[in-house]
Amino acid sequence: MSGTRGTMAVDWEARIDVKRMRDERKSRALERMREAGLGSMLLLDDPNIRYVTGLAMTGGSGADHYSLLLEDGQVVHWDTADHASNQRYNCPWLDDIRYACPGLGNVPRASGSDSARRFLLDTMAQSVVDALDEYGLAKEPMGIDVANGGLLDAFESKGVDVRPEPCVKAMESARKTKTDDEIECLRQVAAICEAGFQAVVENAKPGARESEVWGDAVREMWRHGAMVQGGYLTSGPNTWPKHQANTTDRMIRPGDLVYADCYNVGYLGYRSCYYRTFSMGEPTQAQKDAYEVARDNLYAVLDEIEPGKTTDEISMAFPDMEGEHADYYGASDHWQLTTNHWAHGLGLQLYEVPLIWRGLSPDHPIEIEEGMTMAVETQEPADRQGVRVEEMVVVRDDGVELLSQWPVEEITVIDY
């Protein structure tokens, strides 16, 4: 598979195979779990739950859903009564779905009672121990992906050999490179973001508010089957530095730069991060120059990314402190400039392995692997405004393949 196809199910063309994707993801997690010497893994982190179960985790009140992956591949899943009832009907690939006890998060916090919190934690832990007993795994080490002290104590008091670190590493290892279907999900969400960019072009005009134009883009992305859980659009002086409120009610004016950030737009759970910059009318020379710098900086990094290279090597292609405009911020180190120039992994979360960043990578390098997916982003000021550009890519054996396709050579001009 190497191209964006339709979003609907059809019988006449091979598209994203969701059953295959579920099976391959669970197989990867199971393999890493066995390599770690674990008999089971308790997953509380939403992306990990989705990775193993295929369930559409959209957040909740905190630990009101959790999944137990067992060494034979069986999954026990706990959820709220309404969700569990729906899952029993809609998710036939899961045959052991139970009602959850919310031992972490909003429910115990809102209870206002220490005894209530102890009850919830103990009941949650006991429900998992009961399942381990039923499947004959109570004496085997159990991984857990959230190292909450109270929950760990509850398990240990019941004689469970609970191990957070091997579980976290196992799931990180399983998820850091992507299957073909996962890559196609990211390609599809990039295409949906491009529909959002087109809505920006069609609706941005003097007098339109940032919030109105972004609303038009969000509507278009939802229309294509996306779940839009983030992103923003800013204009003029709100483009440099990045505005603290993101999208505002500011009116767009002639001569403005406008940039849209389609981040955390999801398709089948796979999240985008995709910037493009637009100009209201013909850009000034300063705006053109800034765009050229940001684009060239971005592609200098892309040219360095390939399997076997380490993140410390690649990070040196990002701007130095002068190129970061550290004097503008009054910053003395790269770690103070989070999100300005970096590359971060994409998948079921907005930030996954790898991270390529001068603030971290030089002293803590990891190796790039084929099949990793990431977003690479840069920025540059233009007088009192700024440009941002970003590409979504997958690492192939000879470099990177672009998943994003909106034209990047020049600023997109909006003729109003």
From TrEMBL:
Domain Creatinase N-terminal per the UniProt entry, residue ranges: 25-145
Signal peptide: none
All residue ranges annotated as the Peptidase M24 domain in the record: 184-396
Species, as recorded: Haloferax namakaokahaiae
Pfam family, one: Peptidase_M24
SUPFAM superfamilies for this protein: Creatinase/aminopeptidase (SSF55920), Creatinase/prolidase N-terminal domain (SSF53092)
Protein name: M24 family metallopeptidase
Domain of life of the native organism: Archaea
